[in-house]
Amino acid sequence: MKILTSELDSVPATTSSWKESLRRAIRSIDDLCERLALSRQDLDSLRVRDDFPLFVTEEFLSRIEPGNPADPLLRQVLPLAIEDEPTPEAKRDAVGDSVASRSPGLIQKYAGRALLIVSGACGIHCRYCFRRHFPYEQAMVQESYLEEALHSLASDDSISEVILSGGDPLMWVDQPFFRLVDRLAEIPHLETLRIHSRMPIVVPQRTDQAWGRRLMEQRLQVVLVIHANHANELDGSVQERLATLGAEGILLLNQAVLLRGVNDSVSALESLSRRLIACQVMPYYLHQLDQVQGAMHFNVPVSEGRRLIQDLRKRLPGYAVPRYVAEIAGEPHKTLLSE
Ligand SMILES: *Cc1c(COP(=O)(O)O)cnc(C)c1O
Ligand code: SF4
């Protein structure tokens, strides 16, 4: 199996397809400014850097308010000079991935669940990303790695759930993706297939009904964990696709990251949860930002995060309050930061 990025170029795309959407994605600050009616002055006041790769789909861009340099979606994708400032508390491998690897690309930290990195690519470049220093080149799934990972999974019957992650596993084209899914379904002790993906947000047409239906044509239970940080990310087109996936029998959860300037207020978090529920998605995790170099300007102190969760509880039904968690290397599960 090959990774998508090489296949992407050889697959003919129609104008409405998700591949075409990735091809048309905005990759320069100038282009972004022009589309969003932002002036260089707006950006100068933010100290935007223009030497860094930016990648935003038109679908995501269409949810950003033109002329607003403080837009919470814009903040997630805009490269800033402050990312270069050294921050002593940040580490490169903040979540301890390099020590928990079972075979290349296969990470097991928690009992019963193993995480398989199937793509180093994403449909968006999030500035706060905790995997920005992950050595993808080494973990990129190639046929040999994948065989080794499948072998490792098959030989350990304590594993009942496989999590496809990345990068974004839905950057893979359907054929090798479903081939992998079918191979996993052949491992008798596996019960659940979990997919962590931001594609339903950044390219909603990626996960259409045919995709959902095909995914359910195998015996594993499927959990799709999407990643939205702000209510504005969940527009009508996203809602429609998610409802379709839900109707196919896929359990839908969301994970968000608590981010300064994006969702660090009780009203932003409340709107996000309400919008998720309206889209039939359960708020699952609110992650404390992993302490990685280059992302610390997004950091919200845990004490403040706890207060936000307490206030959120006063406003929302219990099921709509996400679990506020951090990932602490060496712990047997994610650590709850708020009761
Ligand atoms: C977060 C994570 C999981 C999943 O943990 P859950 O609490 O089950 O959502 C599994 N493996 C790794 C390596 C993880 O980082
Ligand atoms: S989609 Fe996820 S893995 Fe990809 S850049 Fe964004 S946060 Fe990182």
Features:
single chain; 339 residues; alpha/beta; ten-stranded mixed β-sheet; 10 strands; 33% helix; binds pyridoxal-5'-phosphate; binds iron/sulfur cluster
Report on the structure:
Helix content is 33%, strand content 14%. It has 14 helices and ten strands. A ten-stranded mixed β-sheet has the order 1-2-3-4-5-6-7-8-9-10. α13 packs across α14 (302-315). The longest helix is centred in the C-terminal third of the chain and has 14 residues, at 302-315. The N and C termini lie far apart (44 Å). Bound molecules: pyridoxal-5'-phosphate and iron/sulfur cluster. Pyridoxal-5'-phosphate is lined by residues 107, 109-110, 113, 115, 163, 327, 333-334.
What is the mean predicted local confidence, pLDDT?
Answer: 89
Q: What general form does the structure show?
A: globular
β-strand amount:
5-15%
Helix and strand composition category: alpha/beta
Bound molecules: pyridoxal-5'-phosphate, iron/sulfur cluster
